Amino acid sequence: MELDLKLTGCRTITMDPARPAAHTIGIWQGRIAGLDEQVADLPAAETVDLGGAVVLPGFIDAHTHLAWNGRRTIDITGLATAAAVLDRLAGAPGTGWIEASGYDRRIMDSPLTAADLDRISGDRPVYVADLSGHACVVNSAVLRRLPEITSDGWLTENEQLAARTLRLPYSLDEITAELHESARQVLAEGVTMCAEAGIGAGLIASSPLEAAAYQRARLPIRVQLMVSAHVLHDVAADPADRIPRAIDLGLHTGFGDDMLSLGAMKLWTDGGMIARTAALTEPYAGTDNAGQLAESEELMRAAIVDGHHAGWQLAIHAIGDRAIDFTLDAVAEAQRQRPRPDARHRVEHCGLVRPDQLERIAALGLVPVVQPTFLHAYGDDYSEIMGEERAPWLYRGRSFLDRGITVAGSSDRPVADGAPLRAIEFMVRRRSSGGRAVGPDEAITVEEAIRAYTLGSAYACRKEHVLGSLTPGKLADLVVLGDDPRTSDAIADIPVLATMVGGAFSFQRSS
């Protein structure tokens, strides 16, 4: 047998407890053929000496937004005055919609309004996306097309969706270009697989034909698509199947191949903390606002139960503790009606978890899909709006692991920095960008944090049999690092030297 590739001179952290370390990796037909003595005597078409570099399984981002991240809009990130925003938007090329992203209402000298935007837009519609993805500011040209909404231009959740729907759809060519832009970025950060969190309809969707763009793009990374629950519809299935609603042809989680597949069905139960719309049992500190549920409980419960009956793994967006309460109750009801022991339903974000909710998450076998970088970027703000008692409950780590709960790492890119090494550092250090300790008792070890971004995310995406560890027989996805995260004092700054997908280098840092 001749190997396709042999990697030598590497310090490999395999994430496989049966063989935690290795110095040689043999690759054949896109898979790990063996390690060290298993391949030492085998010839190879190519041998690459990595010169002592550290090798990990490729990182898996279990919740991200590739099309949104790659979208070419006017960037207003960090602008804190209405004058600065308007100056950036003035003279936007073209004749159609003016779209901007990165708006942060929390830092503005005064909130941007429709009247402000009217000054630079004429008759052109303007959509300024809040960085949370759960709000926007629009001008009067947009509001006139939404007569049922009374607003000064600031729209959240379903009102935001109504405005966004006016702009949709993006073309398949646009979406394809956006996907390639994001794929280049994530490969440079060591990410080999992404779960796209919501296509087809809903807050993040780009087109009802969105899956076609992923087929057309033929990306150099693996992608799993979460289909929005909004596309569930009544089906005339045999009553014995007990499936009242599904998507066309009965497709559900698992359809596809190792490069592009259907993952979980995405549902939203509340909003976000940046927009102050995440649903809480007690108001945000210093306010009478406790956020909001996304829809009526009846509608959301029906979507969860019907999606469960139709064979979907569910990815349920729930950030606030009230939304998590609802999610736990609805999943328990779905499992009572039709037990599926390995349904492996996920809680996307799982942001504010009360102590009494931890055991229920464990008992239901739910997988929290967390975004640690939220607390690096926004930890100071989140701590203030939660208050002293609740801040330690944010985006937990240790409390989950101690109860046997599998934690999956993700970014929610572009809401926050998507680099897994940044997130791993936060999970270990639990300090915000401002230096504030955020739930320090939730800190975990470096290896546990790496596991969240490899085996944990592979498990959440039902891919642990082929991804997540450098084990013979698994797909040859790996990342080459310039230092060992286990001993580094600056994990986030470790350079990614190369990224491999299926035995081929898809990214290599130029010297």
Based on the model shown, name its key terms.
511 residues, alpha/beta, Urease, subunit C, domain 1, Diaminopimelate Epimerase, Chain A, domain 1, TIM Barrel, eight-stranded parallel β-sheet, six-stranded mixed β-sheet, 25 strands, 29% helix, globular
Short note summarizing the structure:
The chain is of the alpha/beta class. 29% of the residues lie in helices and 22% in strands.
Number of helices: 14
How many domains? The number is 3
Strand content bin: 15-25%
* Overall geometric form: globular
CATH fold-level name of the largest domain: TIM Barrel
Q: Which bin fits the share of residues in helices?
A: 25-40%
Give start-end ranges of low-pLDDT stretches: none
Give the termini separation: 34 Å
CATH architecture of the largest domain: Alpha-Beta Barrel
The CATH superfamily of the largest domain is Metal-dependent hydrolases
Work out the number of β strands. 25
Largest sheet: 8 strands, parallel
Rg: 23 Å
How would you explain this protein's 3D organization?
InterPro entries: Amidohydro_3, Metal-dep_hydrolase_composite, Metal_Hydrolase, YtcJ-like. Residues 46-505 form the Amidohydrolase domain. This is Amidohydrolase 3 domain-containing protein. GO terms for molecular function: hydrolase activity, acting on carbon-nitrogen (but not peptide) bonds. There is one protein chain. With 511 residues, the protein is of the alpha/beta class. It folds into three domains: 5-58 and 471-508, Urease, subunit C, domain 1, CATH 2.30.40.10; 72-167, Roll (Diaminopimelate Epimerase, Chain A, domain 1), CATH 3.10.310; 235-254 and 265-460, Metal-dependent hydrolases (TIM Barrel). The chain is built from 14 helices and 25 strands. The protein has helices at 66-70, 82-89, 114-121, 140-143, 157-167, 172-187, 210-217, 297-309, 321-337, 355-363, 372-390, 398-401, 420-429, 446-460; strands spanning 5-8, 11-13, 21-22, 25-28, 31-35, 47-49, 54-57, 59-64, 74-75, 98-103, 126-130, 135-138, 154-156, 191-199, 222-228, 233-234, 245-246, 260-268, 314-318, 346-349, 367-370, 408-409, 478-481, 496-501, 504-508. Strands 8-14-15-18-19-20-21-22 form an eight-stranded parallel β-sheet. It has a six-stranded mixed β-sheet with strand order 3-2-7-23-24-25, with no helix packed on it. Strands 9-10-11-12-13 form a five-stranded mixed β-sheet, sandwiched between helices. Helix 6 (172-187) packs across helix 7 (210-217), helix 11 (372-390) runs parallel beside helix 13 and helix 13 packs across helix 14. It is globular, with a radius of gyration of 23 Å. It starts with a strand and ends with a strand.
